[in-house]
Amino acid sequence: MSSPIKKNRRQYTPQFKFDRALEALRAENMSEISRKYGISVNVLSSWRSQLLAHGPKSFETSPDSEISGLKSKVARLEQMLGKKEVELNVLKNFSDFYESRNTP
After folding, report:
1. Which residues form the signal peptide (predicted)?
2. Distance between alpha carbon 101 and the CA centroid of its chain, in Å?
3. CB atoms within 10 A of CB 46
């Protein structure tokens, strides 16, 4: 049984995408830019096409998506905190029980 391979996707800032798309527009050879920044030619070409079609706004992140991302992160952290509080209470109860059994 083979396990699925998880690809690590890099996250690029909107400014980085915009700058590379501009550079791709000006350059004659996109493969040089691709190698220079470690970006596939297909991704670079896609960014260039987005820039031509929609201008610089195509790389901006919407506030709503940022807010929802932050909300989900907060929810995950709250869940982790709750789990740690439960674990701590279990350990305290075990410690109290253990001490009460060992005292004469």
Report:
1. none
2. 49
3. 14
**Tokens 């253990």 sit at which residue?**
98
pTM over 0.70: no
pLDDT, tens digit (0-9, with 9 covering 90-100), for 60-84: 766 777 788 888 899 999 999 999 9
> 25-48 pLDDT, tens per residue?
998 888 999 999 999 999 999 999
CB-based contacts of 20, cutoff 8 Å, min separation 6: 12, 33, 37, 39, 44, 47
CA distance 58 to 65: 14
Q: Of all helices (H) and strands (E), which one includes residue 95?
A: helix 63-102
The tokens of 2 are what?
A: 């083979």
- Spatial distance between the Cα atoms of 34 and 24, rounded to a whole number of angstroms: 9
